[in-house]
Design goal:
23% of the residues lie in helices and 14% in strands. By secondary structure, it is α/β, with parallel strands linked by helices. The protein folds into 3 domains: 162 residues, Rossmann fold (3-Layer(aba) Sandwich); 30 residues, no CATH class; 101 residues, no CATH class. The chain is rod-shaped and about 160 Å long. 15% of the residues are buried.
Length: 381
């Protein structure tokens, strides 16, 4: 049988042929070799073949190993005469001969007569300069050696290479070339991870923190509507409504549990007025009566009260607050005479703006109140 091994230089063609020939020699076959540079015949157990054209003179059943076989079976013109030693290859199996022939490109290098006699064609392809190759196999001579249905990976036999049975090359100048897909694999994995992460983030976004409403300054009156009373409109009612609406401090309904969530939106202010007969009364900034001890009431009426929520006197905030208070208290003209706007409040005594002192007229009889006490001319005592 004729076995053809083709491939590019330094692909491992001769190494594969010698490995195969050694296996046949171990089976008792006589191996005759020619064309292998620096072959150590005795160490390999091969016999030299001086003239391959005389292959018919060899013993029956011999194995003939020919490297660079185009030197012995060169390509010839189609109309040229076929040499007798080439024509005799058609009946080489009659005597049990096996040929292992090696070349680079059989289509361009070998005699056309051999193409139809090849039983098995092996093409060795080395990839990226690695210590191994890919062997493509056909059961006939194949012109297109780019692809085959039969492929196998062949690792170079290290032990055979260490024996140095022949001279392959002066120096192996083949550089290891890592294929591009090896470099692209990490990048592909990163891009895939990034895309999966982006798609997952698109369908499962992280919850955004809710903005915290700024705390209004003390004493500022909010114009917005008040929030709902705690517990109202939530679809459930307390079991004990009476206790829920009962103030904790008598007379102050806003201290009930129902109003616990309601914020304070008004700064407290007390305005007190004392009379010479010992009476004293106070009202709040909302115009409601505020009950105080008489001594405390008269002290506030005389000296004023300290309010930590009020801006310092004379500041811009103080002026704006007084203007707002004056505008809120000023109502439509109901026939009453106007009161001096620069009254006692401008003196810092604690009186509300718009109230001015008048001449006092004592009661006619003790124990009765003179309703015309404040009808005198305006002026300070």
């Amino acid at each position: 049988m004729i076995y053809l091994i083709s491939g590019q230089p330094n692909a491992g063609k001769t190494l594969r042929a010698v490995q195969w020939a050694l296996e046949l020699r171990e089976r008792g076959r006589a191996v005759y070799a020619c064309g292998i540079r620096g072959l150590r015949y005795q160490e390999a157990g091969f016999f030299p073949l001086d003239d391959p054209k005389k292959w018919q003179d060899l013993p029956d059943g011999s194995v003939i190993l020919l490297d660079e076989c185009y030197n012995y079976f060169p390509r010839r013109p189609p109309a040229a005469h076929v040499p007798d030693y080439v024509k005799a290859l058609a009946v080489h199996r009659h005597r049990g001969f096996d040929f292992i022939i090696i070349c680079q490109q059989a289509k361009q290098q070998l005699d056309l007569f051999l193409f139809g006699l090849v039983d098995t064609h092996y093409h060795i392809r080395r990839k990226a300069g690695l210590k191994g190759a890919l062997i493509l196999e056909w059961d006939h001579f194949e012109e297109n050696v780019k692809n085959s249905q039969i492929k196998k990976v062949w690792k170079y036999p290290r032990e055979l290479m260490q024996r140095n049975l022949y001279e392959s090359t002066t120096g192996d100048t083949t550089r290891v070339r890592i294929p591009w897909f090896v470099w692209a694999l990490p990048l592909t994995l990163f891009v895939l991870w990034f895309l999966v992460h982006r798609v997952f983030s698109w369908f499962h976004p992280e919850p955004k923190p809710k903005p915290v409403a700024p705390t209004p300054p003390a004493g500022a009156v909010q114009a917005a509507s008040l929030p709902m009373v705690s517990g109202l409109g939530r679809g459930s009612r307390p079991k004990d409504i009476a206790a829920w609406l009962k103030p904790r401090i008598a007379g102050q309904p806003w201290t009930a549990p129902a109003y616990d969530d309601r914020p304070v939106v008004s700064a407290p202010e007390l305005y007190c007025m004392a009379s010479d007969d010992g009476r004293c009364g106070c009202i709040t900034e909302q115009g409601t009566t505020y009950v105080l001890d008489v001594k405390i009431c008269r002290s506030i009426a005389a000296n004023g009260s300290y309010n930590p929520t009020r801006p310092p006197a004379g500041s811009r905030g103080d002026r704006q607050e007084r203007v707002q208070e004056s505008q809120q208290r000023q109502g439509p003209d109901d026939g009453r005479r106007s009161i001096d706007q620069g009254g006692i409040a401008s003196l810092g005594s604690g009186w509300p703006g718009g109230v001015a002192p008048s001449a006092y007229v004592p009661p006619a009889t003790p124990g009765t109140w003179n309703p015309h006490a404040l009808d005198g001319a305006s002026g300070a005592r």
